[in-house]
Amino acid sequence: MSEPPASGERRSGRQTRVVERYKNPQGLKRKRTEDSEETPEEVQDIYEDDDLLGLEEDEEDDNRDDDADEEEYHAPRSGPKAAKSQAPKRPKVPEQEDANGQVKKSKAKARSKPVDGASKAAPRPKAKKARLAGDSGGGTVVNGEGITGGIKDDNHLFNALLNSGSSLQTVSEDFLESFRESALPALAELITMVVRSCGANADITANEVADEDGIVGVCEDIMEAIKTTQAPPYPLISRLPTMKPIRKALSAFFIYLTKSAHLSSQLYKTDLIQTLLSWLTTMSSSSLRSFRHTSTYIAACVVGGLCEVYNEVEKDTSVVGRQREAERKKKKSGVAASKDSLDKRFSELKGKQKAIVEFMKEFFDGIFVHRYRDFDPEIRAECMHELGTWMMGCPSFWLDGSYLRYAGWLLSDSSTHVRLAALKALAPLYSIPSSTALSHFTTRFLQRLVQIATSDTDVPVRCAALSLLTEIDAHDLWGDEEDVGATDRAKVCLLIWDTEPRVRRAVGPFFASVWAEQVQEVVEARGRKRKEIEGEHEKIGAKQLAVLLVRLETLVDEETSQSGDEPRTAYVTRQVSSRLPGVPGAESRVVLAVDALWNHVDIIPEWESLLELLLLDHTIGDDSSSPRKRGKASRKDSDDNADAADEEQEKVDDRWRLEDREESVLLEVFGASLAKAITEAESDKKMEASDVKGDITRALIPALPKLFAKYQTDVGCIADLLVVPRLLDLDLYVEMRETNAYELLWDDVSQQFLKQSDPVVLRNAVGTIVFLLSSGISLLNINSRKVAELEDELFTSLRDAVAGRDELEVANFDEDEIQALGAVVTRLASLFATRDLTAGMEEDEGGKQSNAWDILCALAERGRLGYKDEESMIDQCLKALNFHIVWKTRKMLAAPATENDAEAEAPALLSLQEQRSVLLEKLTEFAVGTQSNPCEALRRSSFDALLTLYILFSPGEIIGKKTPGGLLPLLLDDQLQYRCAGFMQAQIEKYADEVGNTRDEEEPAGDENSSDVDMDDGEEKQKSKVNKSKTAGHEKTMSQPQLEREYILCSVVSTFIRAIRIGVLHIRHSPLLLAHFGRFSSTVDVCMKSLIDVLRDEGIRGKNGEEVAAAIAKSMEGAFDMYLDSLVSTNEHAHALAKALSTTFVIRSGHFAILKRMPSIYVVSVHRKCIDWLFTKLKASVNLPNKKRRNKVASLWKCMVPLLSTAEAREALQIKKHLDNAIKQSQLEVTDGKLWEPLRAFEKRLMNIMAKDKTIGDAAKATTRKATQAVNQPVSDPIAGDNDARTPTRPPPRPRPLRKPTPPPAPEVLDDVPMPQIEENDLSLLPAADINGMSTPLANRDEFRHVNGQKRARDEDDEETLNLDLAASEDDEEQQALNDLIENGIGGVSQPIAPVNPVKRRRR
């Protein structure tokens, strides 16, 4: 190594090292300090001062060093030649060691001075010893790790990389000068810098650099030294602030180094690159990730510099070549000499170019070819990124098929990061002028790119693939395709309806490219000689947009309609789609397409052009057979006075004539464009949303009546058109004095509401009516008159539909009458959902006519007959009756509460109660009755309405506010609750039969006598992983009918859970649902998790711990039964249920800290019930000839472990005691066989929990020692297998030692008989517990205690009952110590226990 740095003293007395510096490269020699070296006594003082040094002094000293480091750094430079004459040559001085044991060279050898920071050539063993020492000193320590991450800072090249203020170009030039004068020390300094960049502190000597055959050994020594120490993160991945510039600095340094070496010809005349290549190749094959990653990155940086040099040489070669050709054409004197110089220059450049190519190939073949398939995906991604950089930097060499194929192979990499890096590396290449290699590459890997874009699991990868496909399409490398609907381009365009919004936005440019290509084809087909019509391009663009969307919709419908086949991409359907802001009621794929294409397709924001095209009559000159077009054609033919010129002018050009479906799609695009324009104006600060909305209103006031008249017979178009009025500014009707137009708008909307029966049309019409009623006071009179006319017309149509009919309950209706009645009742229910129609419902004109309430009740009574074609009509009748009760109750609650009004409200209250009773009777009979046979859908809707009414009128009062339950309380009796629970159970079983459990359907049928867990043979047949993967695939590939059935089940389940949460249904019915947790899809589990939240709140906050504990135990037993009865193939769903139910015992904060717990007595009760149930089933299955059921029961102990995740030590103590008694009472011998592994895991978990409490830890450990001893299997045990018979017999227990007389234990309590509660004053009367020789009395109940290092406070009103099993064990004194804990009250009460009066423990 170089001379040791001079040392001085800091203010604290601590020695400090002066950083060595070089002067500017002006031919001056580097100056060094002449301080004397440290003596061993001074070194000892340094260590003593280090312990006493204060934080302020450390910071001041470090800051002083940092200030010195901020100076500009210059690479090592040997002394100038003039320095030789300053002193005579001295004899050789032997090597000496300083106080630190480092080799110090004499200053006399200035000429052979090594590069500063590099090790002097030293014997190999000594260098290895220094490396193995793992000394990380030298790096300034901050917070124990150091600002350099524990890496030594004795290498000046490495320090320059970390110094953001250093000039790396100057550093590289100074290094090359040092390399020219002294090659080996300079190379040692460079390789040491590489080693430092890998995170190692080893020093490379000149001898090691010279020995090429020993590179592998040196690297192995360094790696062995690193493996023996805890190395910090290496610089490339370190998060230390000082390490952030290392990546860019390495790249810049080696690029400058390569360029400078090229300019000085050292790149070709020396072994600089070969030596660096040898070391990097060896390090890149290391087993350490830090060496492989860093060496690969440095090699990539070197190749990057070679690429820049290659471009320069190639450019110079091209210039010289052209000059040679020019000289050859000249025939003047003196040409020969000039030509010879050019030939020499050309040959020299060609030689350099060849050498650079050889260097790049050696780096590629020696490092890249091996590391691009490295085990670490980060290194593979690094290789792909750098390869893309080389191709962009030097396309003439790297942009070739032999290198592009590596990028194509990595497109199928298993790592998301690698695939993303490959796609990002390929995208910029298509901006390079056309290349044959790219064309071949695209043809070969296009299908893989389309596959990634359509079906990759990672969204960023899909977006990157779409960007790459857009570039390919923009450069006409996709191929010749005519039909967009049947090619790969159509597959990509379909992604505008993908479920992921980012994918929809990413495919926008590609879709716009396809659309623009179609528009250009239509424009060019017309010819350029003809005069362009105004607005021609916009109309053609709108037409082609509609054509493209219709083709894509057809393709999607074909894919989704295939039975049994899952669509290749999860496209958004009309039933399930996102609602965009500003588009009320929008449920269309076209709306999503407009949002994705807004910034890419020019015609979409041009809503004026779309409106102009929609107002045209596209039936002129068309012999279409559609009813709408025939009607328009007949009206046109009847106009005898139509002028021929006008007719010619009204004709629509074939280039933008729309078909029926295209017109419907374009109308939907128009509505979405209006909403998007308003949304964009609201989000843009430079635009006024009111101005945009005003422009839209002014354009639509005259256009809406025409559109309503044009599309009045088209249900789909009317549904889309009814949404458009909600985007208007209604105040402009008054400002523009267009009240007549406003009344005409009311008439159009009302006419469609009274004429149409489609649910979508009615929903949109009602939404528009509500919007019109929300207008200002200026339009209040018109709104009141129009809505009154609408209501009168609605009730009149209902009476007319049943006019002349007696006994509607049993009357016969034909199909047309049923459809008419269903349409009227549907309109009434739709409007009733938003407006109070109770007055019209009860209006009978003084008894002259039947009121609507009686008519609907009579029609609803027909539900008992079970006619399938009347199902929808009866369902709407029940909804209208339910809305009547709700609106009437709301009106009574809104009335002011006065004494005078109380008497007036009595008749109304009585009428409400009577009507509610009538409705409840019908709903009860249809939902859970036995005297009728309603349809299944009617039964479900009646069940939902029934529980909703009971929830609405559930007893409960709010101070100062009237509630429905306070006016007319309604309770659900137990008999009806059990009938509702039976209905819920039937729905679940029906869903399981229809959809089926995926695990059961996909698992092949096996032998009846086989077991899922063959524990006797010691082999577990693990099927859970396979089942999980199948289940996950099932959830992703559910068909549309399955999704609909799942939605129906979730709606019924949510109603049932809502009733439990409110208190309408008792919490005892919750196991009915929870037993199926994890059996079906994750959507059903999300609903059930809300029920688990209800149990937690009831058990902890609601003080209903006993009922909650019983419900939890019953849920676990139900899940166990399903597994034992083979309703499910594995016990994974029971394990998931236990994990979810464990959260009911505690309430956690946002940081997962436990805030409150359920009383311990109830937690223990859950485990006691489950333990008893399992042992009961186990005893019953012992003597069965089939081992399958016995093994199943034994495997269920695994599901009990998650319930202990929140248990405390004292709770675990009680559970362990009950477990031991249950084992004893069952007379089953628990052996060390495979059968009892789940039980032993449960018992081990209990022991670990008990060990956390120091009070009972010793007793728990003693019992653990006894439990881990070899347990012998008696011959008479009916469960013992052949493998267990080989165990030796257990020796008889030794006599129990005599004990001091203790107070008599409390009487034994049976499981079914609860213990009397212990009052707080009685705690002091409990005897002290003798735990391992320590007498510990119970502390005060109101105090806090520590649990696992956290404080927890029990509620003062939590009354815990000690329901303990005090049966004494006949074993040894360790087991008796546990019994003493229970007998003396410890474990049932949560108090701190303070040890007093320690007594020496008896030993055996």
From TrEMBL:
Residues 1-141, 622-655, 995-1038, 1260-1312, 1384-1404 are annotated as: Disordered. It comes from Dacryopinax primogenitus (strain DJM 731) (Brown rot fungus). One of its GO terms (molecular function) is chromatin binding. Residues 1289-1307 have a biased composition (Pro residues). Pfam families: HEAT_SCC3-SA, SCD, STAG. This is SCD domain-containing protein. InterPro entries: ARM-like, ARM-type_fold, Cohesin_Scc3/SA, HEAT_SCC3-SA, SCD, STAG. Residues 368-452 form the SCD domain. GO terms for biological process: sister chromatid cohesion. GO terms for cellular component: chromatin; cohesin complex; nucleus. Residues 1260-1270 have a biased composition (Low complexity). Residues 8-23 have a biased composition (Basic and acidic residues). Residues 35-72, 640-651, 1000-1019 have a biased composition (Acidic residues).
